[in-house]
Amino acid sequence: MSSQFSLFNGGIVGESPLIDVLLDEIGTAARCDLTVLIFGESGTGKELVARAIHDQSARAMNPFVSVNCGTLTETLLESELFGYERGAFTGANEKRKGLFEAAQKGTIFLDEIGEMSAASQVKLLRVLQESTIRPVGARSETHVDARVIAATNRNLGLELQAGRFREDLFYRIAVLAINTPPLRKRSSDIPLLIDHFLCEAEKRSKCSRKRRVEKEAIRSLSNYPWPGNVRQLKHVVEKLVATTMDGDLITAEAARRALPNGHLAGARAQVPLLYHENDSLEAFLDRTLLTLYEQLLATTGNHSQAARLLRIDRTSLYQRLERARRRVQNNG
């Protein structure tokens, strides 16, 4: 039942237990009108989840408006969200409605809400409390009726502790919380996703004959850790379609070549046994951490993704790595 829902409602493809849980949470969120916080790694489909909630809700016939808070400066974000009056600033030659007004009676999706500045957080909190906005340069407020769904790939618990995210805003947006699971935790869904993205890519390229995927290629792709999650898998499948002909067999070798740095996906990164005679436990753990991090970095090519795979924020990870390097150097 979950795979039928996913294939025909928003593209959330899968039938693993984690997807069943996700679909249940989407259904629960759709039946009420509370604010929702979607959290999860980059590429796990947070906007798809937001759209699925909207599409199944009582607001489905009204607009779904999306904005990425991480791509706009504080000033631009304010004018995008709340709009502005003519003459409010240089270049404001006419009045413009903001996204909250554009989402009237519908849903506004605030992606990467963890990137908001402190000042923007205060203004958003007021909107949630009062259901009103004040466009830039306006003297009066405007009532808005838009459901807020927010998303982040940051650990907002750590952001709260560091004072970078307001506690009162957090509890306002996280009335309902939904986690989008990383692809490595639902690898049984990868064959379904490959077939789904293959069909999509072939439709766009107007292929006359469908490509076939070798079983070993599916196994190879299923064993890859996918630091970029579903988005990365989609791009790899699109690359395979672009580099093969209609009706071709996609081989395991072709799949491996399509992965970053020609990674041999059939062999997951493994940490060799680094125990030396007369080692202390601390020395062994230090070398293991450093080796594991280097292997993850070689696989992902990205410090942030390596940190996410280790389930630790970058600052804490760098501190641990620095301590480990110093101890290893001092012990020769």
CATH first level of the largest domain: which class? Alpha Beta
- The total of helices stands at 15
Residues in helices, as a percent range: 40-55%
Q: Give the tally of structural domains.
A: 3
Spatial ordering of strands, largest sheet: 2-5-8-1-9
Pick out the low-confidence regions.
1-9, 263-272
The CATH homology group name of the largest domain: P-loop containing nucleotide triphosphate hydrolases
Radius of gyration: 23 Å
Q: Given the C-alpha coordinates, what overall shape results?
A: globular
Output mean pLDDT: 84
- Structural class comes to alpha/beta
Assess the beta-strand content as a share of residues.
5-15%
What is the architecture of the largest domain at the second tier of CATH?
Answer: 3-Layer(aba) Sandwich
Biggest sheet statistics = 5 strands, parallel
Task: Assign the CATH topology of the largest domain.
Answer: Rossmann fold
Our measurement of the CA-to-CA distance between the termini, rounded to an integer number of angstroms, reads 59 Å
